[in-house]
Amino acid sequence: MSDTGFGLGFGFGGVLQSALEAFGPLCVGIDPHDFLLDEWGLPSSAAGVREFGLKAVDAAAGRAGIVKPQVAFFERFGSAGYAALEEVLAAARSAGLITIADAKRGDIDTSLAGYAEAWLTPGAPLEADAVTINPFQGVGSLASAMEYATANGKGMFVLAATSNPEAARLQSARVQQANTTSSGSDQASLAIPTVSRAIIDDVSAFNAGRVGEGPVGSIGVVIGATIDFAALGVDVHTAHSPALPVLAPGFGHQGALGTDVRRLFGSLAPYTLVSESRSLLQAGPRGLATAIDARAAELRAALV
């Protein structure tokens, strides 16, 4: 059961909806890069990332509704790094923050079920409210993990259209070859979804198939704010039922402006989480709370 101050409602989707209504869409990334540790006067060690994460949680509590620790920056210190992450996740959840573990796990269904148990079991050492997932082996391979998540009031964000430029070639590919020879072949080809669109459609269909899911789905997708939406086949004009949560990197340091969230994400905007890390964290431990306050207010105003 969630320790956040939002209650379970309709599972993770309900928790997320309450947080968005209370604080707006800002998701504070907790990414303890070495250069940031140095700027914060902290060592590049498990103790350093622990202190960094706890300070970030303190700054976000009561100012934003969601934090997203990047697991890799803790994992590099082995078991001590994982122990530090456990403390950061527990502190965030105790502070009433929704926690998204940015782990990007992916595997066949039985192995992925193990990852889901690690990150999404109530009371587990690494318990988070949601986790990022890689669907390269097919969205179908995520089915048991998605079922596990929703059964436990948890969520997932499935990579669909990521903000790194290297992904565009793969994610804009069509899921099957057009088998046409007529002059209408171009139109037929366009009717075949891209990899990104197929992932989004599959996740939306999973949410729609959940009895009693509520107005907001518990399984969301990752869509970068800096992508070429048309090239990747991402449709931001069609509403999903239940609403489809979106975790959106690419804001802040990567160049997208939070004030453009409605223009970029269209009908998806009300449930789009604006993820920022370096652009906020560079304010330092003394300035981070003020930076979060200002950005959260800016984003709330942009969505009015």
From TrEMBL:
CDD domains cross-referenced by the UniProt entry: OMP_decarboxylase_like (cd04725)
Q: Name one Pfam family in it.
A: OMPdecase
What Gene Ontology biological process does one annotation of this record name?
Answer: 'de novo' UMP biosynthetic process
Q: Which UniProt keywords apply?
A: Decarboxylase, Lyase, Pyrimidine biosynthesis
Membership in a protein family: Belongs to the OMP decarboxylase family. Type 2 subfamily.
Location of the Orotidine 5'-phosphate decarboxylase domain: 25-292
Which gene specifies this protein's sequence?
pyrF
Annotated EC: 4.1.1.23
State the InterPro entries in the record: Aldolase_TIM, OMPdecase_type-2, OMPdeCOase_dom, RibuloseP-bd_barrel
Q: Which organism is it from?
A: Gryllotalpicola protaetiae
> Is this entry keyworded Lyase?
yes
Put simply, this protein is called Orotidine-5'-phosphate decarboxylase
Taxonomically, the superkingdom here is Bacteria
The chemistry this enzyme catalyses reads:
orotidine 5'-phosphate + H(+) = UMP + CO2
Record GO terms (molecular function) = orotidine-5'-phosphate decarboxylase activity
Q: In which pathway does it act?
A: Pyrimidine metabolism; UMP biosynthesis via de novo pathway; UMP from orotate: step 2/2
